[in-house]
Structures are given as structure tokens and as C-alpha cells.
């Protein structure tokens, strides 16, 4: 049993139902994300799994499976022409700003991403504008701005988008995206738990101060 996939006008994908000559409209995908040219899509037979189809939706779902030529959106990933900017608020305290540099170095080493730059929204350098320019100088064509913030407050809604848009004006042809802040990511539970346990170990004399509190004497029982 097979069917043909047909791309209609624009970027809308249409599926020919084997039980009816009518067309069933599927979810729209940009042609650039389908992993297949329109010409190839028209002639490719569709491999159907799990027995006869009982609805047009089952047919549509099958057409998006990887074994049918990847006729769905490609996985999004950071590519060779992408640059990543990790931006925090910025502080008048030099030690806090330097900590972002250490995190970026750690992030770059662990992920293997070639272009990762730190930036501070205000109060310290490098700025978002500086980091954006540095990414472009390294040959990127898309800049990904990742706010190193916990929740989506005013800085994420307004300040960072405004500063990034201003920086992008000097680099026509370079696109950018601003990702969500950390938010309610389940891995943050492990981070907070690890930090709490380390601080308790320190006040009990079983561990040194962590890199955050080092030299401050603030991690203690009051």
C-alpha cells in the first residue's frame, strides 16, 4: 500500500489519501526544513506501517516518519556557521563578571561548539554588541543569544531583544535568535540540590568554599 506526497503552493504539504481522491491538508512546513525537494516528494512512494490506515491523520503522520525520506522538519542544532552568545546581567563586581567567562569556557569545552562568546547586558564589557561583532568576525551567519537568566522578566522581554537588534544593524545578512532563559528546567533541581549539599558540607567542615563563595566567608551559619 502506498501513496504519494505532494507539495502545494508555498510551503504547505498535502497528502493524497489512498481511500479517496481528495487531498488531506497536513501541517505546514517550510520547504527548506523538509529535507526533500518538492520534485522528489511528488514521486517518492510512502511506506506505511502498522496495517491499513483508518484515517487521513494516520496517513499524514506516517508521511512525516524518517523512513519516508525525512519529510518532516530537520532536528534543529548549532551548525558551523552559528555563533552562540551567553549573556548575563553584568555586575560592578569584577569576580562575578569573570565567572561568566569561566562558564563560557566550560560550556565551549563540553559542547564542542566552535564559536561561543560571553556578554553582559550592562555594567561591564564585553557588551552584546561586542560579542555579536566578535561572532561575525569569526565567520558566523547566524547568532544565537542565550540569556543566562533564571526567569523571563523584563530583561528577556525587552532589554536583550532591543540590544541585540541594535547590534545586528551593523551586520546585514546575519540573522539572530534569542532563546528562552533557563526557566523551569528539571535539571536545575539537580544544580540547586548539589549547591545546597555542598554549602552544608562546607559549614560542617567537610568541604572547602565553592567557587562562588571563595574568599567571602559568607557560606556560614548565622
TrEMBL record:
Pfam families (UniProt xref): CbiX
GO MF annotations, alphabetized: lyase activity; metal ion binding
The UniProt record lists the keyword Lyase: yes
The keyword Lyase is annotated on this UniProt entry: yes
Keywords attached to this entry: Lyase, Metal-binding
Protein name per Swiss-Prot or TrEMBL: Sirohydrochlorin ferrochelatase, chloroplastic
Species name: Rhodamnia argentea
